[in-house]
Amino acid sequence: MSSQSATTQPVSVDRPEAAQAAFPERGVPQIGRVNRRGLWTLYMKEVRRFFKVQTQTIWAPALTTLLFLVIFTVAFGRSDREILGVNFATFVAPGLIAMGMMNNAFANSSFGLLVGKIQGTIVDYMMPPLSEAEMMVAIVGAAMTRAVLVGGAVALAMAFYPGVELSAEHPWAIAWFGLMGALMLSLAGLITSMWAEKFDHNAAVTNFIISPMTLLSGTFYTIHNLSPLFQGISRANPFFYVISGFRYGFLGQSDIGDAAHVLWASLGLLAFNAVLGYVTYRLLKSGWKIRS
């Protein structure tokens, strides 16, 4: 009987293309310089968080802002009273829209990290393969999304309010100052969320800093009625330029001045937000009051 060699030769089996796609070669990075999928996932998480309770986060703020319009037009808005060439209701409406956008941008971005620290789920933000810049963009982007939705809801409600006539004289100013205001308050909210250790800290910033600066920014009046001292104080308030620039987009005029002054104000807000964004990024990078 002839004996055959018992040794077996290894069989080379090519992997299917699907398997090769599912299991890439070792050492090949799967996340590029920007983790787009991770950034989008965190952004959608933040959006869905406030959208699940949209009655509280979008429609309730819109109703509250509309009540401001009702109260102030009834109390101060005589039918023959004009400010900047328009009736009182039309003058106040753009400022209220911008105010609602800024307040809700701050409320959204100042909530996420704070809740994570209190509930012990901050690791959900820190463990995923996201850079500090990507995390900041996702959180700030979600807060700005909420601001735009609230602004749209308020504008829609005011379009049906008697006496309000909103026309886009300068659409670029509406978009620019609205987004710059939302960005500014989103960044401020994120810094507050890092700093705060309990909800009282967050509420203190809202009640003693954000609300006064918003209400004293020319939302309900023109600063030309103030004394020179308080006019100077108002012009040192960045909220004033957001409100007045946003109003310029609707009415074609504002407390800032002519078109050249409005343009300089828009560039000033861009520079201010760039500095604020850099500070926010450095605080996130350092793990200030986040990492133990």
UniProtKB/TrEMBL annotation:
UniProt xrefs under PROSITE patterns: ABC_TM2
ABC transmembrane type-2 domain: residues covered: 52-287
Keyword Nucleotide-binding: no
GO CC annotation terms, alphabetical: ATP-binding cassette (ABC) transporter complex
Compositional bias annotation for Polar residues: 1-11
Region span, Disordered: 1-21
Keyword Membrane recorded: yes
One Pfam family it belongs to: ABC2_membrane
Compartment(s) where it occurs, according to its Swiss-Prot or TrEMBL record: Cell inner membrane; Membrane
GO MF annotation: an example: ABC-type transporter activity
Signal peptide: none
InterPro entries to which the protein is assigned, alphabetical: ABC-2_transport_permease, ABC2_TM, ABC2_TM_bact-type, ABC_2_transport
Segments passing through the bilayer: 58-76, 88-115, 136-161, 173-192, 204-223, 262-284
Membrane topology per record: Multi-pass membrane protein
Keywords in alphabetical order: Cell membrane, Membrane, Transmembrane, Transmembrane helix, Transport
Family named by the database record: Belongs to the ABC-2 integral membrane protein family.
PANTHER family in the cross-refs: INNER MEMBRANE TRANSPORT PERMEASE YADH-RELATED, TRANSPORT PERMEASE PROTEIN
This protein's name: Transport permease protein
Taxonomy of the source species: Bacteria, Pseudomonadati, Pseudomonadota, Alphaproteobacteria, Sphingomonadales
